[in-house]
Amino acid sequence: MISIHGVGEELMVLFFEEGHSSGGQLGHGNDVDYFEPMIVTFRKNARAVHVSCGFNHTGAIYEYTED
Predict the structure, then answer these.
(1) pLDDT digit string, tens, across residues 6-26
(2) ∠ Cα 55 19 31 (to 5°)
(3) How far apart are CA 65 and CA 67, in angstroms?
(4) If DSSP codes are grouped into helix, strand and coil, which group holds residue 54?
(5) How far apart are CA 8 and CA 45, in angstroms?
(6) CA distances from 66 to 21, 41, 48 (A)
């Protein structure tokens, strides 16, 4: 589930996940099952440039910026 908001030249994407996470595949840093959408947070100065989700995985490619 993704929420996308655009203003001028800026774009904000909120990435939410829910489901079973017995192997940590949801990307929250644990193996807890979530049955309500939870926002996935990224590290400071990082943005996801590509996200892939499947039955047993979640993957993201990050781009880091200096601030």
Answers:
(1) 555 555 566 677 777 777 777
(2) 95
(3) 6
(4) coil
(5) 21
(6) 32, 18, 15
The residues spanned by each domain of the chain are 2-64
Q: What whole-number distance in Å separates Cα of residue 20 and Cα of residue 31?
A: 8
Q: Token pair of 52, please?
A: 């892939």
Q: CA angle, corner 57, sides to 51 and 61, nearest 5?
A: 30
Give percent above pLDDT 90 in the chain: 0
pLDDT in tens, 49-62: 887 777 777 777 88
The tokens describing 64, both together, are 């880091």
Q: Which is nearest to 15 in space by CA: 5, 27, 6, 2?
A: 2
Model confidence, pTM: 0.48
Q: How many CB atoms within 10 Å of residue 5?
A: 9
